[in-house]
Amino acid sequence: MNIVLVGMQWGDEGKGKVIDILSQKVDYVVRYQGGNNAGHTVVVGAKEYVFHLIPSGILHAGKICCIGNGVVIDPEVLKSELNSLRKNGIDFDKRFKISTLAHLIMPYHKNLDQLRETKRMNKIGTTGRGIGPCYADKINRCGIRMVDLLNRRVFSDKLKDNLKEKNEIFKKVYRHPGFSFQQIYRQYLNYGKLFEPYICNTAVLLNKACNDKSDILLEGAQGTFLDIDFGTYPFVTSSSATSGGACTGTGIPPVKIDKVVGVCKAYTTRVGEGPFPTEFTEGFGKFMRDKGNEFGATTGRPRRCGWFDAVIARESVMLNGITELAIMKMDVLDGIDKIKICVAYKYKNKIIKEFPHDFELLSKAAPVYKEMAGWPNQANKPRSFKELHPNARAYLLELQNLLGAKVSMVSIGSARKATIFI
Ligand code: IMP
Question: Which helix (H) or strand (E) holds 284?
Answer without folding.
Answer: helix 282-291
